[in-house]
Queue: 2 jobs
Job 1
Amino acid sequence: MSEEDLLDFARETVESTVESLKDNIRTGLKIEYKSKFDLLTEMDMKVEDEIVTAIKEEFPKHDIVAEESFATMKRSDHVWYIDPISGSTNYAHGLPIYGVSLALKIGENIEVAAIYNSIEDEVFYAERGKGAYVGGKKLSVSDVEDVGKSIVSTSFPYEDRGRNKNLEYFKKVVPKVEGIRRTGSVAVDFSYLALGVLDGFWAVGLKPWDTAAGLLLVEESGGRVSSIDGEDHELGAESILVSNGEIHEDMRRLLK
């Protein structure tokens, strides 16, 4: 199967979850708390199960890493990363700002990615070396060069230590940018950065399934990805800084 076929599979698999998510957002779904702030809805599990089943049927030898419960370790060079609902807290409260994130890593690189953005009601997708798109339109990050004119976003982790650390970052950034937005969905943040609506994003404590698809989407739309200290970012790293490239070093200095 070609990488183009793999991308088609990722897009179609994400698209297949959309109507069910829309239909069930305000239906009183059962909610469980995994920790103080980290919750889980029935739809998280339903969507994850659907995606896992699709992957296992089509690619039984591939590994899978999913947020809620599923992981296989066959030592395959092909690893799928699934975030069934990016923005579960929004979804659980009936706030329609959420995403579905699916990416395939082959060897050392993320090669295909698909993200559903509920606000746009579109699937954003990317293939390494071939650009990022939504609705057939090629995506490009913004051209904002002045960090003081930028709109950036962030994500607060669930645990207290990470929240406190990011609050310190937040205090540093607030006076220096035009605005900070907090969507509550990392997938939405990444898709809007690729679209050129947001100019930068930073976070601590994100997991591989949170970022895998978004990283490729941003890179293929011309953006830049690193850790907050400027090192190359690896999945599961403690921190991440993503930008249009133009404000990257200024953002890094603000966060230092």
Note: Residues 147-255 form a domain with the D-Maltodextrin-Binding Protein; domain 2 fold (CATH 3.40.190.80).
Job 2
Amino acid sequence: MSEIIIDKEFEFFLPPLDEATFKWLEDSVLEYGCQQPLVLWEGILIDGYNRYRIIMEHDIPYTTVSMEFESRDEVLIWMISNQVSRRNLNPMQLSYFRGMHYNTDKRLVGNQCGNNRYSSNLELPHNEAILEYERTSKRLAEHYNVSRATIERDGRVALGIVAIGEKSPEAKRSILAGKANISRKKLRELASYTDDKVSEIAVEIEEHRFDNDRNASSEVDSNADSSNLGANMSGAHNNGSGDDMSDILPLSETVIRMTNVFHNELRLAINGSDKDLKNALRMSIDLLEVLYLKL
């Protein structure tokens, strides 16, 4: 049997089992063996990390099954659907998975959508990308039976949790276990914080010193997702009414929210390919042009 590859990103993506649940799983595997096959993609383990840990520790026989996906993002979407469908998730974990699903789908849209199963086979013109983001949030809202606003806020929550996890895996585990006193609003704000500030909060969470009330921020809450914000702005530009921008949002708040949107889209793209970064920059330019023409 070929060696199984452990991908740290995929492994870290999944919330760990609590101690009691892991003990139950370990006892079950020890008594009945590993009855479910481990799931692989190109030799990488994508389902069964807890079972793999147990069978390696106790030298228990196992089987594997391979699945085919076109990209890591499609693997992530499958992993999310798999987790949501079969685990009893707490509210924070549900927000995290819905947000990761949304952010991953947006990344696929940003890659021109031609190779993902949710879109047509044609490349999207840049001026339609924002509308595709809007369709993405609507589709996922229907899929998870929540509002579009919830999906878009969850996308921000997921970004915040990922940012914390990059500084402290233990802090991320604490948040997803529901043990950290941090609100979704604070997590949504984290994506616009400096690395030093995120590190400071991560350490406080890890050491159980973080006080959400004490750290309550007066900053503008950047709930407005790029799809929602872009749709509002595009609608204002296209309605021909000549209304002032303040009919949508005060100008200063619009600029602040746009800045947060740009920051977070670039944050998603910066570790990707040149194409990811180019698409994020193009989306930013398009939104800025809409605002410029409206003034």
Note: Residues 72-295 form one domain.
